[in-house]
Amino acid sequence: MKIYLTNIFLFFIILKSAFSQIFYERYVNLKIGQGVSFGGLGINLEYRYNKVSFMGQLGYQSEQYQYDHVIPASWNFGFDTRYYFSKKNGNWQFFTGLHGGWLSNYYLPEIGENGYNSQVFGLAFQSGIEVREDLLNIEIGLTIDPGKLILNSSKHPYYSLYWYFSPNVGIGVNLYALRTILKTKRKRKLNDGIISKTFISSNNNEHKVSDDTIHRIIINQQAKTLLENCANSIKSIYDRAFYQNDTLYFFKQVASRRYIYIKLFLPNIQKEQFLCFTLNENVKQPLVYLISESISTPSTDELPYFMEEIEKFSVAIKGVFCVYIQPPYCYVNLENIVFKQQNANVVFDRVIICDLQY
Q1: What is the location of CATH 2.40.160.20 in the chain?
Q2: Distance CA 266, CA 274 (A)
């Protein structure tokens, strides 16, 4: 009995770890819709890593009436794998893939009154387009079934004589983005708690330094204004922060077709710290980019490679960049940032990126 309970405990630990890793990749999609990709009328859960996704579906196909013959209802299931093409066209993404599982409930006049199995399982091809924002997305696709890649073909007479084309339509929710929205209120409370801490002044003898080091006092004093600005601002679910290979990456949309992208080399990310940099044309650290084209909001794990697909961008030539790290959260303030472009310089008085978890 003890060994049995231990195995159950280990199973839940592994399951929780896997669940956390899936959400860490920033794109877990739950869809409802109709078609082969939804098992008829049903749901579809997708896990996407970069441009490749895996999904499973469960659905119900109601009773049908064809050629004066009743096709019985059924519960259905299946699995898909897809590849999503480049995001250069903004929020539109084409995809292609392979479907395995339920294909259709069918009847053909050639069958007559002979016995057969109407529920068909096998392989088919998929293609389509997805229109997505960070939270919601819509899928319009087509399943192409050649009729020959089916299981138990002997129980499905005449099915392999034809090709079958069926549409898929669905609407989905990015569960990670939904989770981020639900956590926003809690993070704001955390910010309020940070701001409410005592900031010690040299002119106030009522406060003592017994609980803080000098390093902590300096950090508090320098970060106070940034935290207050964050508490009064509206946090966007489209803001991004990611840490990899000793580099901290940030992404923020600042206007229509305009985005700020930042790379900061920071070897020690686990230490609380406040850093400020003066930007000019000769500074290589940090790099602050202004992107001026229509793009999709990237997932966090895409940030290290994000600039590889960007064509229209410029680098900041003037301004001040400050970052406050309070593991595992970070806060960024950009002041008087100037980007040099061909027609005219682009200037931002202030850009704030708040309470992101890297």
Answers
A1: 2-176
A2: 12
